[in-house]
């Protein structure tokens, strides 16, 4: 985590900005949903740090993104509603994907030293295979929608944008910012507190989270 925050704020070994405040991403889960699904026979365990004996001596090797998405699938089947959720806020989906790539050992960008540019680092066959767990999550609707669907349909039915200037804007679905409902597992900032009592905080899978915040230039 510190490694990535270092590169977020530096270029050519010079500071771009000084961090004033930081926040990291974490998981939350609905204990009641887990209990109900366990009684129905689903092999669910509370994520760490709960029930440490279930996760071994190093939870980063057992509480993985593969396991989290497996849980999302089971909760979806158990409840009839998506088992995973991202709160629809600006760039949260990007941060979610960056964390997954970091944990799976996939470089988001790579350097092309001959052209002196940075390129997408996701194109290797083994990286694409690793990311198939994300494809399964979305294709099977194990994750709640957070983008306005009409925007997505319009993008899918139009030719691919020829430049960055022509990239579409995807609007976020309206959220109910009272008590946040969580059916199964939620990807969220660590400081949020507007949840029902049965929604508990847990560790994020793997060994990497997102460190963000505000800066002073």
Question: Total number of β-strand segments?
Answer: 9
Query: Could you tell me the mean pLDDT?
Result: 84
Helix and strand content put the structural class at alpha+beta
CATH level-1 class: Alpha Beta
**Terminal Cα span:** 22 Å
Largest sheet features = 5 strands, mixed
CATH topology: D-Maltodextrin-Binding Protein, domain 2
Helix content: 25-40%
Tell me the fraction of residues in β-strands, as a range. 15-25%
Structural domains: how many: 1
The global form is globular
Could you characterize what this model shows?
- By secondary structure, the chain is α+β, with helices and mostly antiparallel strands.
- Helix content is 30%, strand content 20%.
- The protein contains 7 helices and 9 strands.
- The protein has helices at 2-8, 31-39, 65-79, 92-103, 125-130, 132-139, 149-157; strands spanning 10-11, 14-15, 18-30, 84-86, 109-112, 117-120, 185-189, 199-202, 211-216.
- A hairpin with a 2-residue loop joins β1 (10-11) and β2.
- It is globular, with a radius of gyration of 19 Å.
- The mean pLDDT is 84.
SSE blueprint and pairings:
Layout lengths: L1 H7 L1 E2 L2 E2 L2 E13 H9 L25 H15 L4 E3 L5 H12 L5 E4 L4 E4 L4 H6 L1 H8 L9 H9 L27 E5 L9 E4 L8 E6 L1
Parallel strand pairs: 4-7
Antiparallel strand pairs: 1-2, 3-7, 3-8, 3-9, 5-6
